[in-house]
Write a structure and sequence with these properties.
Elements lengths: L1 H28 L4 H10 L2 H10 L4 E2 L6 E2 L20
Antiparallel strand pairs: 1-2
Helix pairs in contact: 1-2, 1-3, 2-3
This protein binds zinc ion.
């Protein structure tokens, strides 16, 4: 029985880690930090992490100051430069 429990625990941990990585990747695709999202998933709950990551607004980087700005923004809120590039990451 002890072995089965250990196996189950190891399997749960593997799934937990993998799902956390997926959550991190989703966050990364939206311009957020992969490691921060991954750590958050690991500490809390990977499923919650994925839901939060999916709910995040997609961000792009300002081409002048490299800060995150919303894709709909026409002006960078950090440096005030015109964000006139179209739909490009
Ligand atoms: Zn900027």
């Amino acid at each position: 029985m002890q072995e089965v429990n250990l196996l189950g625990l190891g399997l749960s941990f593997s799934i937990w880690t993998v799902v956390s990585i997926i959550g991190g990747k989703i966050a990364q695709n939206k311009g957020r930090s992969f490691w921060k999202a991954w750590a958050l998933c690991m500490l809390l709950n990977p499923l919650i992490g994925i839901i939060v990551a999916l709910a995040l607004n997609r961000y792009k980087n300002c081409q002048f100051c490299a800060e995150y700005v919303k894709p709909e923004a026409t002006l960078c809120k950090h440096c005030g430069k015109d964000q006139a590039f179209e739909g490009v990451e």
